[in-house]
Amino acid sequence: MTELYLYQTVHLARGHARNVAAHIAVLDAASHELFGRRYAPGAAQLAERIEALAAAERYPTGVSGFVRIELGPDGKERLIPAGVSLYDGYAFRSLTPEAVTLCYELPLTEAPTSAREAAAQLARRMAGQAGAETAVRCDRNGILRDADNAPLFAVTGHTVLAAPGAGSVERELAVRAVQAAGLELREEPFGRGDLRRIDELFFADHRGITALARCDGQPLMTLVAERIATAAEGLFLKK
User: Fold this and answer.
1) CA 178, CA 173: separation in Å to the nearest integer?
2) DSSP state of 65
3) One domain for residues 214 and 152
């Protein structure tokens, strides 16, 4: 892989694109930092183009679908169909994968770049060789950073811990969902050495919430993660 680009994946529920303005803001900040140019399409116009692509691809409106935005250094934008979901809206996914921790640093930046995706793909393959489906990235100090290239959260009792990391649409959505569920949220690091006191680990991406069944062999629960997923979808149902 030699092509450099930024990316975001937009969630469509019942044919409507969600969080488009927030995805634009993430791409704009990263493009300004890395490419020296702004990305500022109108949110309503971009949402219309995303929804038109989903309709042209005959996405069913009874379940969610996804469209990917890729933005190159020259400012050229691509909209790419990224498949459909088994669920309607942000979901608590029935898949609860096994995970292992892998120590690696991202290439140069935490921004959503193609290089970051390539590193995550390699980590996923290495996790598979260790008998797991998901890689949990940690730094050289053993602090857990993300899972499957998505924001990571831990649950201890009724407190949710947000792993350190760059801001993202999905991280902000999960934070809002934790608060809507009436749970305490603390943004603080947790690491490999904390796994025995952690009740749950979950990550948030464009599909919804995925809880881990085990991490480094440590069994984990899923009760609070399911509650947070319900709260996340509820943020949109209230509108």
Assistant:
1) 9
2) E
3) yes
Cα–Cα distance for residue pair 144/101, rounded to 1 Å: 8
Segment-wise mean pLDDT, segments of 10 residues, the chain, 239 residues = 90 97 98 98 98 98 97 98 97 96 94 97 98 97 97 96 91 97 96 97 98 98 97 86
CB neighbours of residue 132 within 10 Å = 23
Closest Cα partner for 5 from 68, 80, 67, 70?
Answer: 70
Name residue, tokens 């390699």: 122
Q: How far apart are CA 237 and CA 111, in angstroms?
A: 30
**Rounded Cα gap, residues 185 and 57, in angstroms:** 39
Both tokens of residue 86? Answer: 């088994």
Decide the pairing of beta strands 65-71 and 6-13: antiparallel
Closest by Cα among 91, 113, 71 to 170 = 91
> Residue 13 is part of which domain span?
6-84
Domain count, the chain: 2
| Closest CA relative to residue 7, chosen from 63, 78, 81 | 78
Domain limit, last residue, from 24, 52, 84: 84
In which residue are the tokens 């030699």 written? 2
**159 and 202 housed in the same domain:** yes
C-alpha radius of gyration, the chain, whole number:
17
Contacts with 169 (C-beta within 8 Å, 6 or more apart), sequence order: 8, 19, 22, 23, 26
The DSSP output letter for 86 is: S
pTM for the predicted model, two decimal places: 0.95
